[in-house]
Design brief:
mainly alpha; Farnesyl Diphosphate Synthase; globular; 1% strand; 75% helix; two-stranded antiparallel sheet; 2 strands; 15 helices
């Protein structure tokens, strides 16, 4: 049975509406242009998985309260700000099927909007003395920047190994989901052991999430010959290709590295790389690793008492690796 986020969201359906109201309030501005852009951002909301993680982990570890909503708003403000800035850097004109902020209002305004959201998150935390939450999220944003820079550096030389790959995705992707879960728990002021459990839980989910994204580049193993190829175009060595390169002789490794370096979005090259990865077990190995992190996350949830929140979090973990996009 396929999982839907609406079904997973049921235990926090009311709380998500409260969060959305508080999030809009945190974004409000008296500057008409800014307020118009903020309204546009709210309307094109995505899956909202990150605030869902905050609310569900808070429910799991004690109960949802006013601090939980502030934590969820802080996460969404900071996350949205980084996405807006990413779109500027990447010259991306679409986000979640809608025009990006920079596509509609140009780069300068987009950068300023991102800055406004970052400062709004900081002020929300400082005003309410949420220093623990702010520390958790600031560490995640720092790690995300480090992960992105490390990936750019490695893309130039194509010398990424499996250890470096996991370091990159732990920083770049998993750190934010980990911070969501830690913030949700922190809103109940638990002991450090509970906080650490939720942090590791979120990190495990985040790693599984990114491996799933990397598999999409190869059609998730079900559509070899028709890959998306975005990572290959950007010279990013992800787990499927890294594993395949580790299991061939030096001559074949050099040949494939040369093919990736000289890749010009030619269908023939894309198919050759994809078929190589599939034949050398890169897809199967990546799926196996993804499931190992999924299992680690589920095992952590088993240390908590059964509840609707735990059930939804278990479903969120499964949704992460079963999603179609």
């Amino acid at each position: 049975m396929s999982l839907s986020l609406d079904k997973i969201k049921e235990p926090i359906a009311h709380e998500m509406k409260v969060f959305e109201k508080e999030f809009r309030a945190a974004m409000s501005s008296k500057v008409p242009l800014l307020d118009r852009i903020m309204s546009y951002i709210v309307k094109r909301k995505g899956k909202q998985m990150r605030p869902m993680f905050v609310l569900l982990t808070s429910g799991l570890t004690g109960g949802i309260n006013e601090r939980t909503y502030r934590g969820a708003s802080l996460v969404e403000l900071m996350h949205t700000a980084t996405l807006i800035h990413d779109d500027v850097v990447d010259d991306a004109f679409q986000r979640r099927g809608f025009f990006s902020v920079n596509a509609l209002w140009k780069n300068k305004i987009a950068v300023l909007v991102g800055d406004y959201m970052l400062s709004s998150g900081l002020l929300l935390s400082l005003k309410n003395q949420e220093f623990k939450m702010l520390t958790i999220l600031s560490e995640a944003v720092k790690a995300m920047a480090e992960g992105e820079l490390l990936q750019i550096e490695k893309a130039r030389t194509l010398n990424t190994n499996e250890d470096v790959y996991f370091d990159i995705i732990t920083k770049k992707t998993a750190s934010l989901i980990s911070s969501c879960c830690a913030i949700g728990a922190a809103s109940n002021e638990p002991d450090e052991e509970v906080l650490d459990r939720m942090r590791v839980f979120g990190e495990s989910v985040g790693i599984a999430f990114q491996i799933k994204d990397d598999l999409f580049d190869y059609g998730d193993g079900n559509d070899i010959g028709k890959p998306r190829g975005i990572d290959i175009q950007e010279k990013k060595l992800t787990l499927p290709l890294i594993y395949a390169l580790q299991n061939v002789d030096e001559q074949e490794r050099k040949r494939m590295i040369k093919l990736v370096k000289g890749f010009k979005n030619k269908k023939k090259d894309l198919n050759s790389i994809s078929q190589f990865v599939f034949d050398k077990g890169g897809i199967a190995y990546s799926i196996e690793k993804m499931h190992s992190f999924k299992d680690k996350a589920l095992d952590i949830l088993k240390t908590f008492e059964p509840s609707p929140y735990r059930t939804s979090l278990e479903q969120m973990v499964r949704f992460t690796i079963e999603r179609k996009k």
